[in-house]
Design brief:
Layout: E1 4-7, H1 13-24, E2 28-33, H2 37-47, E3 50-53, H3 59-73, E4 76-81, H4 96-114, H5 118-124, E5 127-132, H6 135-139, H7 145-165, E6 170-177, H8 183-186, H9 190-198, H10 208-219, E7 230-233
Parallel strand pairs: 1-2, 1-4, 2-3, 4-5, 5-6, 6-7
Helix pairs in contact: 1-10, 3-4, 4-7
The structure holds acetoacetyl-coenzyme A.
Length: 240
């Protein structure tokens, strides 16, 4: 029987590349998305990967979506918590709403995604949890107090899950992408983006597929002894 992988935010950007890479690796992939129906439909048509709509910030919706996927496809053995948003603003201008939206989606969203699949992984004594963090959770970023807090929080989550999951053969790891050529990075003002690229020793933005390959490795049997770890893929911009 094929293994089932869930990728949140899996129909666009880095998430879409992860969905495609996991499908190529032999998984039946369920790609979650929150709102962009048109992009999700286009993604499904192009890739043959079915999409499922819910907001990861909502626990009940996440639990219901995951139950529906498992009823249709079978137990989820790989979960990739990738869905994330930015609401950038210098701290003195950041509103409580900008703080809350990012915390709810990026951090609580990880809890809401992993928590419903965790009991089944424990029962079946197998699981792969991969959380997409960020270089900006490692080094902080001007105008991203909210986002950096969530991405640093991801690293605490996987290190704790790694300790709880190990005896059940469940691994939990993070990937910290640097600046990748996605809509999220393209939304940064051009002048700022150019100054960021100038700080990347590789001299370019990363490609979504370069992150997807890290995830496919962490999901694979080859990575069975790797847990609580972080793969940084940032073109040399920052070393932990
Ligand atoms: N470092 C230091 N200073 C900076 C800065 C930086 N990185 N970015 C902006 N500033 C300065 C500006 O030069 C400006 O200075 P002055 O007041 O002296 O002119 C000041 O900070 C900001 O000016 P404003 O108050 O007008 O800023 P604003 O309210 O218009 O906000 C911004 C602008 C939201 C900060 C915008 O510049 C921006 O989006 N910056 C990019 C932030 C960023 O890198 N986000 C990452 C997105 S990609 C991502 O998140 C994916 C991932 O995981 C890597």
């Amino acid at each position: 029987m094929s293994k089932v992988a869930l990728v949140t935010g899996g129909s666009r950007g880095i998430g879409a590349a992860i969905s495609v890479a996991l499908k190529a690796a032999g998984y039946v992939v369920a790609a979650n998305y929150a709102g962009n129906d048109e992009a999700a439909a286009k993604f499904s048509t192009e890739t043959g990967i079915k999409t499922w709509k819910w907001n990861v910030a909502d626990y009940e919706a996440s639990a219901a979506g995951i139950a529906a996927i498992e009823a249709e496809l079978g137990p989820i053995s790989v979960v990739v918590a990738n869905a994330g948003i930015t609401r950038d603003a210098p701290f003195h201008k950041m509103t409580p709403d900008q703080w809350k939206q990012v915390i709810d989606t990026n951090l609580t969203g990880v809890f809401n995604t992993v928590h419903p699949v965790w009991p089944g992984m424990r029962e079946r004594k197998f699981g792969r949890v991969v959380v997409i963090s960020s270089i900006n959770g490692q080094k902080g970023q001007f105008a991203q107090v909210n986002y950096a807090a969530t991405k640093a929080g991801d690293l605490g989550i996987i290190k704790s899950l790694a300790q709880e999951g190990a005896r059940f053969n469940i691994t939990a790891n993070a990937v910290c992408p640097g600046y990748i050529a996605t809509e999220m990075v393209m939304a940064v003002p051009e002048k700022v983006r150019e100054s960021i690229i100038a700080q990347i020793p590789a001299g370019r933005l990363g490609e979504p597929e370069e992150i997807a390959r890290c995830v496919a490795f962490l999901a694979s049997d080859d990575a069975g002894f790797i847990t609580g770890s972080t793969i940084s893929a940032n073109g040399g911009q920052f070393f932990v």
